[in-house]
Backbone:
């Protein structure tokens, strides 16, 4: 799938300050990618046409379908159809049990349980004792944003990355911010990476689902140039994740579990 | 649900140019909202806690579950549980037929079919013969962005609106851009609005799913300050929708079906 491109040129009519021109402009590519799990249609991900293996395996690992790379018996991508065939050691779960709402939920008082039963069963508190300096946060975010060439060209993709200290270990772009983070999950899962000292970097907002995915990845810190939601902060408090938001230029906000951040 | 707020204050540590302060800052609210359709769990929408009826009915109407407001026999929102109970005249569809992939799909050559079978069965070409001037596009987008106070405060919500001529008829904000547009769908459906001469305004990107929702709403023009995806342009060509992207200040791009835009 790496042969395909994040964007391609399209004819566009530009109207700027009263002047109309016809040009060719890059537009971000988007495809539907269907996951066939043990012969049954499991899900269709609408995504950028790159790094499909990290995305599909990251998605399946995040949902708890596979718990170790050895559980994947067979993997085949048929790009002309936009279909990935995955065979696993264990049988596929019943799909209708999957997005079941956890009704002892965060709308009430008390501890905020995750809204899907499957997440509540899978996600455990993050234990990482990493210490991250303000200087490293600034450096990581500069590097993270400088590299987002496709966004600059098309305005159309989100990025997610995995970082340690002041280095970015892996970075993925996708039209969907969930997909970009699922690819990070796939990368850590397929390479059996111990994420206990690492941080997740995001270009977009930290909504609750992004926080849950960070917890599944096992990274104790999530950093974004954008804002978290209230529910994401509730979950981060519950699962021990440090949220750094609005990380831009020489400033950032810390929303919870501040003990992992050092200033100087 | 209107009693709840889009955002609420949280304690935040701000670090700006080497100075650390503890303040109270607005963070956008997010809740899981579960739709019980005829007594069965149908879907959980993760959304902003406002205008839940437009969202839920817009979601159900968009999926073809209800085709007329009269088909809704009963509607009840239990806000302490985050659950909406909907009773319809017709029985609920089988959930597992719902997100089935349409395999004669857009990845091959030829006409780009919508990726889900349900969408392909529901969405029809838009016929609106509206003419929209560049001046109206600029005026609408200025008005659309000026009003987004929550975004300015929290950086955390997307907006979608319905416009006619140079007026905005309805505007909704949500942490999820799909939800914001589903609310527009709910508004047009519940008020039986003829959308044939109208435009949809979006704060976020025009991905294929947003284009499909615009087609379901029946608006012939979609305008965003951001970019469309290639698949959205393909679908817009197929379904006769005009895409205006990067509408900012005194400029915009037209990606297809330009005959509805007038300059002068």
Residues:
């Amino acid at each position: 799938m790496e042969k395909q491109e994040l964007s391609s040129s399209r004819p566009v009519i530009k109207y700027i300050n009263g002047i109309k021109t016809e040009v060719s402009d890059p537009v971000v590519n988007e495809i539907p990618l269907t996951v066939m799990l043990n012969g049954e249609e499991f899900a269709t991900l609408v995504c950028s046409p790159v790094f499909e293996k990290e995305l599909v395996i990251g998605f399946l690992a995040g949902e708890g379908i596979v718990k170790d790379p050895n559980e994947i018996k067979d993997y085949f991508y048929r790009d002309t159809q936009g279909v990935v065939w995955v065979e696993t050691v264990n049988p596929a779960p019943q799909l209708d049990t999957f997005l079941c709402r956890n009704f002892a939920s965060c709308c009430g008082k008390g501890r905020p349980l995750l809204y899907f039963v499957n997440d509540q069963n899978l996600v455990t508190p993050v234990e990482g004792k990493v210490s991250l300096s303000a200087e490293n946060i600034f450096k990581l975010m500069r590097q993270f944003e400088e590299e987002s060439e496709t966004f600059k060209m098309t305005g159309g993709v989100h990025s997610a990355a995995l970082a340690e200290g002041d280095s970015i270990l892996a970075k993925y772009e996708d039209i969907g911010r969930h997909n970009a983070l699922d690819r990070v999950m796939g990368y850590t899962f397929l390479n059996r990476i111990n994420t206990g000292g690492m941080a997740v970097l995001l270009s977009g907002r930290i909504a609750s689902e992004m926080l849950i995915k960070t917890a599944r990845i096992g990274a104790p810190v999530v950093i974004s140039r954008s804002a978290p939601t209230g529910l994401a902060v509730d979950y981060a408090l519950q699962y021990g994740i440090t949220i750094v938001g609005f990380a831009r230029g020489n400033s950032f906000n810390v929303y919870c579990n501040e003990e992992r951040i050092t200033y100087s």
Remarks:
- The two ends of chain B are 45 Å apart (CA to CA).
- The longest strand of chain B covers residues 7-16.
- Confidence is low (pLDDT under 50) at residues 105-109 of chain B.
